[in-house]
Amino acid sequence: MDPQKRSATLAALTRYRIMAWVVGVLLVVLVCVAMPLKYIWHQPDLVTYLGVAHGWLYMALLITAYDIGRRVAWPWVNLLLIALAGTVPFLSFVAEHYATRNVRGCLAQADAAAVITGPEVAVESTGEVE
Question: I need a labelling partner for 77 at 20 to 30 A (CA). Which of 16, 32, 103, 128 fits?
Fold first, then answer.
């Protein structure tokens, strides 16, 4: 894997990890704090604001998950599991852990394959017929 592609994959992984944690924390606060406030103490304001924020950021999580999945060629089932994990409290943290481990493993395999096969040589075509 060339350094530019590796760097882009690591950047996509960082974006995904940040979104997974933000969405996970918001969902935990929404379920464990805001929902009791709404249904026990009749204060629905926090649910309104956190629910909207979680919804928008969940969409950003799906975009970042698709981005990293495309870069490391995940099957669609992985993306579906990440999408479901964003809807269950605490599960997005688990999904982030396994996704990070998978991406780092893919990068390590690509690096090992590059060492075995040698560096890639780029050949430019001049367009001239000899």
Answer: 32
Q: What is the pLDDT of residues 14-28, one digit of tens each?
A: 999 999 999 999 999
**Alpha carbon distance, N-terminus to C-terminus of the chain:** 32
Q: 102-108, long-range: CB within 8 Å, 24+ apart, which pairs? A: 102/72, 102/74, 102/78, 103/9, 103/13, 103/68, 103/72, 104/13, 106/72, 106/73, 107/1, 107/6, 107/9, 107/10, 107/72
Q: SS3 of 44, please? A: coil
Rounded CA separation 31/52 (Å): 13
| pLDDT tier at 119, thresholds 50, 70, 90 | low
Predicted local confidence at residue 89, as pLDDT = 94
